[in-house]
Amino acid sequence: MSLVFSIIIPVYQDQERLLSLLGSLNSQTFDFEKWEVIVVNNDPEIRLEIKGLVSPLYKLTVVDEKIPGSYAARNKGIKEAKGEILVFTDSDCLPDKKWLENAYKIFENDLNRKIGILTGPIPLFYRNPSNLSDAEVYEKYTGFTTESYAREGKAVTANWFSYSKVIYEFGGFNSELKSNGDSELSGKISSKYLVEYREEIKVNHPARYYTEELVNKYQRLLGGTYTRNYKNRNLKFLGYLGKFVFRRYRFAFKKFLTIGWSESKAVFKVCHAINKGTISEYFKLIKGAPTAR
Asked: Are 102 and 247 in the same domain?
């Protein structure tokens, strides 16, 4: 029986949440013989311990990619994949149990192969919904807006399905990027094919708990933007950074007018930390340092 889906999961120092994801995939309602999972370990210093810790009902392959970055890891997974449709998610995600079954029905009706990317909602979940951390409050108001993103012809790799032929047609992800690679590739694909958003293609994602995690996220995004658009153009990059910092503070101050004091204060603290982190990252990047991971 030929494989329909190949699920590609890059992982970097996130074994505990990866194991939760792999275990949760046993609840998928789609025929286990028709899909595989490829985990790509992107940390050459640490061996992934999976054997004996999870009992997959599906075919599971673990490979290593020494080139740093999740997009390099995804490209390694693409080369290993045998499925007609490539599926991307992240090690900290938990897909809905009908994720694959619902996707299969949509692709089954795509008789003219017009879909370039199939994506859907990525609702956040929290450690303790009644006691959110500052970072979780920030994520509550800035979480994934995948529907509007899809209307712009973009998708994120936490919840992404594409025909393997489409991915190969556009050469896969840019392995030089540590961030923005999904935006870059989805933009290329949407120039020729549809980016289809469907509510029933759902993947749950944890809100970041620590402010440092958000600072690191925006440092990676800044690095991806620098690599794509501003390398050796330091003054223009400084102008981009200035606008970014202004938008974070503007967002924070608006929240003081629209939400309660406790949450608005949390949003401001996170925005201030993000701005400090991105300013620091700017000076590292223009001095030739590698982008953050």
From this structure: no
Q: What is the residue range of 243's domain?
A: 211-286
Mind listing the pLDDT tens digit for each residue in 223-275? 989 988 898 899 999 999 999 999 999 999 999 999 999 999 999 999 999 99
Quickly tell me which residue has 């982190």 as its tokens: 277
Q: Both 160 and 109 in a single domain?
A: yes
Number of domains in the chain: 2
Q: Return the ∠ at Cα 103 (arms to 102 and 109), rounded to 5°.
A: 100
pLDDT digit string, tens, across residues 212-225: 999 999 999 999 89
Q: Mark whether 231 and 111 lie in a shared domain.
A: no
- Distance (Å, whole) CA 94 – CA 74: 18
Query: 160-163 and 5-11 as β-strands: parallel, antiparallel, unpaired?
Result: unpaired
C-alpha angle 231/79/75, rounded to 5°?
Answer: 25
Residue 274 structure tokens:
């993000």
